[in-house]
Structures are given as structure tokens and as C-alpha cells.
Structure prediction request, 309 residues.
Amino acid sequence: MDAVTEAPKTVDLAAEYESSGVAEVLRELDRDLIGLAPVKQRIRQTAALLLVDRARRDMGLAQETPTLHMSFTGNPGTGKTTVALMMAGLLHRLGYVRKGHLVTVTRDDLVGQYIGHTAPKTKEVLKKAMGGVLFIDEAYYLYKPDNERDYGQEAIEILLQVMENNRDDLVVIMAGYADRMDRFFAANPGFRSRIAHHIEFPDYTDAELLKIAEAMLDGQNYGLDPAGRKAMAEYIALRRTQPHFANARSVRNALDRARLRQANRLFETATGPLDARALSTITDPDIRASRVFSGGLDVDRPASREDQP
Prediction:
């Protein structure tokens, strides 16, 4: 006869915190993400809830899986996708999803163009996401009440059913601008009732964006000289006041253009061998060549749908 395993009578939450890998994920969150203090606090609170819930299940005190579907609201470039990826890892370490992978989609990945096209598209995405986290960016575009021939409602109905019936094998995170998400939930109360965690992502401050810029450059073995750092700080302050500003995303695009200018400057002016320092330093002229300093918009591509005001 098989021995019956007795439920533990006590739990050491501090030990569980370390052994589960949750501590490692949260340290990574603090190390890799600049700013976002309220977001990090909410993630810690969610991790504590899940640790206690797992302990309660081990003791036979809880049976149902808690509702883990989430809403991330905030402006573009505030780290929503990055945090979703970390959340997937956290849920996997705690045993709430089998695989811990993240599948990122938009309306176009879920909604078809003709009758009978939406259901298989949506179901295929859900099949790929099972055992992990499905991140739906700009989720409010699923709902277009003014278009009677739109098939977004079909995708919504399938999502609602799966979110309810498969919540022990899939976590859905819906993301977008706060005001638009509020209207979306008001028009689709089924989503609001299934989403327990609403996390707001604040815009980065100028100082945080400058740190992000330096971290991005460092990750590519580049750096700013003192004058270049001052120019970048001024760039950030000016760019923030312009249309289609997307926080860290706009900073990354600006640095890509600065690297392009730096490469052309070196190619055109170098008269002899260049050392690693010269090849890796972004200077004042590389930043100030931006149209932002003359009142123009430093955008080399059309704004994405998410960037629209």
C-alpha cells in the first residue's frame, strides 16, 4: 500500500521565497528595470499572494486557482512587455503556468478579415499561449462598435470563454492606454470581471530616461562623453514635449540615430587608425544634429498606431 503523504503543518515563507526562484526574479526586476517603483511594488505584492496561496494549497486550505489575468495600462515605452515577460517567469517558477513563455499579439493576430477567419486565428494563438502568458497589446482595438461587419467581437467571446475555463493553464495580460482600456472594460464587462490585477505604468522621469539611455548604450559597448551626456539630457527634455513621445522607445530610436551619425562622422573625418574609445563614444554633435534642437520632430518613420494621440 502506498504511503499517504501528510500535508505540512507549517511553512517557512522566507525559505519558500528563496527556493522557489521568486527572489531571483524580483532581484532581476530591480536590477534590469529603471524606475517603475509602483509597478515593482505591485509585482512584489502579487508574488507574496501567490506564495501564500501555494502554501495554503499544500496544506489543503485552498482548492481553486486564483484569478491571475491582468491589465497593464500606461503610455508606450514604459516597460509593459518587459514586465509581462518577467511575470511569465514568476508564474512558472511558482507552478501557476506549465511553460512560462510569453506570446505577444495585437488585434491583427486574432481578428480575421472575413467570415469564418477569426475563430481559427484566435484559437491558434491561444493554443500557442497555453501553459504561459498571452500578452494582448492595444487590446481595446478588439472592440469596434461602430463597425457592424467587424469580427473583433467573435475574438472577444472566444477569449472570455478560454480565460474562464482555462485559467489554470493560461494567464492573459491586456495592455494599452489607461483611458482607452477603461472604455474597453466598460463596454465589455466580461473582461473586467475576469481580470483581478490592474497595474498602472507611470511615465519615466527625465533623469530615469537618461539612465535608461546610458544603460542601452552600455549594453552595446557604447558610451556618452560628458558633453554628449548633457546633450542627451537636453534632448530628452525637448523630445518629451513633442507628439508621439514613447518614453524608453523614443530614447532607443534616438540612440539608433545618434549611432548612425557617429558612424558617418568617423567615416568622413577620420584621418588615421581609430581606437576602441573613438569607435564607442557618442559625442555632443552626434546628439545635437537631431531636428529636435531646431524645433523639428525627430522621427524617421511614421508613428505606429500605438503612438497616435
Q: What stands out?
A: The first strand starts at residue 70 and ends at 74. Residues 300-309 have pLDDT under 50 and may be disordered. The longest helix spans residues 247-269. The chain is about 50% helix and 10% strand.
